[in-house]
Predict the structure.
Amino acid sequence: VDVVFVLDASGSMTSNSNAGINAVRAGVNAFVAELNTVAASSRVGIVRFGVPASADVPYTSVGSSALTNYMNNVGGTGYRAYTGSNSYTNWDAALNEATTEFTAADAVILITDGNPNRSIGASYADNVTGWNQATAAALANAAALESKTTGTVYGIGAGAAFTSTPTPTDTVTPFGRLEQVVDTGSVTSFADLTES
């Protein structure tokens, strides 16, 4: 089984003493450990994204310590948040990187804590209009990725952007933007990922 994780590393993931980063680490590590138990020949690849996106881990055996070392940021070059002007959320770049760098995945799992406010070459307001514009930019890459995989592209959204009640001007449900891009799962916090 080949699985690609597309992991949000935007600045908001560092809120509450890196709560988002740490919970995603725990969830992905638990997933990899379980996959190693039930399908030891499986491979995992990882894309990390903020404004830019990078395929930091090519397909790697689930039994390799390289995966947990990356997720635990051993040596300071693993899964960590982007900073400064790169700390926004760009689903478009993330999905484009996954499409470009990985082929024939059995599943692609996008994990994010917020609405997108950037796309490749563009910035948007951090409001409903901007989020919808950024989502629209990501749709073509989502379709290209889905057509390339042998499985499904899933999205897991957690945090206020996915659990809060829509404002009166928000005609999209809290999960609406993520659902436009991928098949969604929902968790109320990243800590739940170990159970998902």
